[in-house]
Structures are given as structure tokens and as C-alpha cells.
Amino acid sequence: MKPLLIVSGILVASAVGAGVAISPMLTSAKAVRDDGPATTQSISQNPQGAQAKGAQGNAAHAEAVAPAPAPAPPPVVTPRKNYTYKSFNVDGNYIAMTFDDGPNPETTPQLLAILKERGIKATFFVLGNMVAKHPEVLKMIADEGHEIGSHSWSHPQLTRISQAAVEKELGNTSEAIFQVTGKRPMYLRPPYGSMKPSLRTMIEEKYGLTTVNWAVDPNDWKFRDSQKVHDAIMAQVTPGAIVLAHDIYPTTVAAMPRVLDELIAKGYKFGTISDLIAMDKTPKVQLLAALPNTGKPQQAQQKPQKPKPATASAKPDGAKPASKPAAGAAQPPRAGGVY
Ligand SMILES: [Zn+2]
Known about the structure:
globular, binds zinc ion, alpha/beta, 5-stranded parallel beta sheet, TIM Barrel, 2 domains, single chain, disordered C terminus
């Protein structure tokens, strides 16, 4: 018995040792491929500049024969728990453009071209049933380095259906995205922005989906007017904002060149939800601010910036104008951007 135990112990130890030695390399290679280029390009306002940087980076890498550590490690993305993102507290004028309800073969490819021309990376919250119908469009989105999140399978109000139905909506959508892209989504944009803390916790724990709503809502689904979409976004946008739009409406897509060019001219830079979570300084600040008054004056100056989340987030994301408007009003209290 004893020799057997020793042998198996050695085997286990060497297996663990091999795992420890190999896994950082795999992680590093994967991180560079998945996150490095996306971050560089999306954060850049100038695609040519990004390419030039990339070329320098490659040259430097080729000279370094030894496995020297990468100069800038990829950002670590650790979303907050039990939290709904609407904006970020970041240094610099970073914002996240998000597009819901696709992929749509009529409009999404056009938007992709507009984003590509400007070197912008965005986040697409897709519907499972649209992914099933148009997997090739989802593949295009993924291939161009955009982030893909879940928007459920059929756009129900998740707080109004059974937990079993929620699980089917989210499980099937994550699986459909995985089948096309090889990656499961990390973020959920709940239809109509409708969520409650107990459901959010279940969704985080069971599906690894962090809830992401928005701070800027142009109501593009309602107006179907490019000028209004433009005006609303330009009026509401602030650094760190998550901008909601829908890539299924031609009027929204038609508004984007002007919107994006003006945002660039104003000094805004763009990242995916993961990019901005990696840069976000909010967690500690908000937790401190959320504590009862402890009488420590230094906490007062760390008051978080909240670019008017209450009004914007109280509205449904509105992909289905036909749905009952009363549904949003019947939501549990969401005023003040509490979650
Ligand atoms: Zn929607």
C-alpha cells in the first residue's frame, strides 16, 4: 500500500507542477490575443496610430528572445458583485457604446463598418433568437473584436417570468453565443433594464453574467429619427457613461457616423464594457460612500460621480415598442440608481 501511495503522490505532485508551470503561459497568450489588441484599438482615437504602436510592439517582441514579461499586462476584469453597471468612474473621457437587440443582417454590418473606420470597439447585447437566425452576423461582430453580451433569448421582462423561464432564456442564449464565438458572455443587458437584486444574484452565480444597464438613453427605438438620436446622445453623454442604442434600426445606424465623429472631436475615447470595468475606480469609492456617516471627513471628497443614472435607467430599453409601458412603472423601486 505504501509504495503505491508514494507513487501516486509523486504523480499528483508532478501533474500539479506541470499545471502551474503551463497555465500562466496559456493565460498570458490568451490574454494578449483576446484583450491586448482590442484594448489598444478601442482606446485609440486614431486607428493608424494604433497600428503603428502594434508594429513597434511586434518588433520589440521579436528582439526579445527571452520570455520577458509583457511591458503592459492586459487589464484584469473583475466585475463588481451584486451590482448593476450604468456608468464607470474612470480617468479620462472613456465611454462604452452598447448596441442591443441584434444581430441584424440588414443593419449590423453597416454599423460594424462605421465602427471599424474609426477604430472603435463597442459591446453588442444580442438576442439568442437573432443569433440562431443570423449566426454569420454574430461571427462578424466577434471577428472585428467587439464584445458580445447576452440580452436574453426572446426579450421578456425577466422580473415577470418564472425562474425556470429566466434560466432557459439565459442558458440558451449563452450557449448559442458560445456555439458561434467559442466564448460565453460575461454581461447581461436585461430587457427593459428590468432587474431585481435576488434575480441578479442568481444570474451572477449560475451564469456568470454581470448586469449592465446604461446612463445615456436616446430612445432611438421610439423616435426612429437620426437627428433626435444624435441630439439626445450629445446632450446626455459624460465621461464614463454607458450609451444605449439599438443596431437594428436604420435611423440609429445612420446617426452613428456624426455621433461618433463629434464624440471623438470632443475628446471622447471608446472601450468595451470589459475595457471600462478594468479601468473603473468605482468599487472602493462607492463602498466607502455607501457606509453610514462615520464622521471621517476625508470620505466626503470621494463622492462618486453619477451622471444622472436615475432618470435614464428608469426607462425601459424599449426594443419592443409594442410591449406594455405599464410594465416599467410596475418595477420594484429603482430610483436613485441603487442597483
Ligand atoms: Zn432590448
